[in-house]
Amino acid sequence: MMTWYQKFKESVFFRKLFFLAFVTSLILFRTLLNRQLWMNPLSDVMGGWGIWETVNGERKLTTECIENVIMMVPFSAVVLWTFGEKIGNSLKKILCYSGKIAYIFSVSIELLQLLLRLGTFQVSDIVYNTFGGMLGGLMYCAVMKARKHL
Fold it and tell me: Which residue in 95, 121, 94 sits closest to 107, CA to CA?
């Protein structure tokens, strides 16, 4: 415990890595660990594209697509913040890396949901998560540019 405390005090990279692990565990808790088993995880592969869904003939507001975007914004921003020196400062590179990172992480989550039967596999989740990751990369870039000017 004291070793971790000393590392936490001394190393900025260790603090960043710890925060990344915390954000990742929050996402995994929301997407995998806090789910009930589904009999058919492929029942709605192409669903979840809008904020309105029809259930038993009734239109209901669903925020699942918005949640998927918001969930990946801090994740990709923290990944870029942690490993930013290796990526560089170019907006194009940052958006490319943040999109790739969010896409790979999202596909991994969806495949685990499929294999473990925890939730449904949906293409819309992958698209929204990737968009959220790119939005997080854009926010990271904006904060780093503003920080550089101050």
Answer: 121
